[in-house]
Amino acid sequence: MFTGLIEEVGTIRSLRPQGQGFRISIAAKVVTQDLKIDDSVSINGACQTVVRCDGTSFDVEAVEETILKTTLGAFQTGRRVNLERALQIGARLGGHIVQGHVDTRGTVRAIQKQSTSWLLTVDFPGEFARYVVPVGSICIDGVSLTAARVEQNTLTVAVIPHTWSHTTLHECSSGGAVNLEFDIIGKYIERLLLSGNADHAHHISRNLPQKAGGMTEEWLTTMGFG
Question: Is residue 34 a contact partner of residue 104, using CB atoms and an 8 Å limit?
């Protein structure tokens, strides 16, 4: 589990094909301080297992499924990547719950400079639109961000100067691909409603409050949550 708060920007040192995947070596200084074989590291939002490490670099093996769903297959030597070690129990959860399980790739539509921030607009496949809500959490290339605007299959996030300069987001360009992970809480709620007792899920959906703020204590009790 991760938080989406990037610890360091590392550099791809080498890529070696392994079947349909790659063995990727990454140069880093911060995350390698206590990294061990079998530890998890988020690389541009994709959770990977360390198979070799020393004080200056580490290796991971990106398998076929990872290459299919993420941008890791397009990595080249010298590319800079966002790195985060797994969350330690007892640490503050400064971002949001990030699994490192990339859902899909998005495409950067536009980057707009504001007076105090940058607006990054990303298109994503329409089937994921149900997981994106205004002011909800979204993970882009491993960075925990908030969806400021949502329109069908497009979202816009506002990036503060610190995040812009301390991650690879400032290296994004229009038409470029990014890794997206949607909020796990929304996906679990959907799964619970759609599986098990389908009739109960339909009953809840049919009886959802139609007005904002209509989810009252009385309504929750009626639905069986009291």
Answer: no
